[in-house]
Design a protein that fits this description.
121 residues; alpha+beta; Nuclear Transport Factor 2, Chain: A; 28% helix
Amino acid sequence: MLGAFGSGNMEELKTTLSADSTWVYHGPKEVPYAGTYVGKDEVVRFIGTIIQHTNIEGFEVHGFVAEGDKVVVLGREKQRIKKNGQLLDQQWVMVYTVSNGLITHLDEFADTANAAKLFSA
């Protein structure tokens, strides 16, 4: 999934998701892509909303922790906010649930208080 995301191949990314995959980006309304997205097309819309509002200047995966059906991914990203040029440089944690080799759920956590401040600037 991360390889497909990095290359921008949304059709390949969809093959890693269950039909009812649910992705949740936890954050306030000031972060334009915060919310819950259900289904493959909604996940692609989530990623499209990020790209619509930011230029991704860096995306790094720092590690994985897997236990049972959970995979925790630790990383960092840099996004340039298109409307004001502010740089959002933050670490994040993504918690995936996987069943039968497909992603059924994602919870993403980041410094959304700072992101909200930068998007509002």
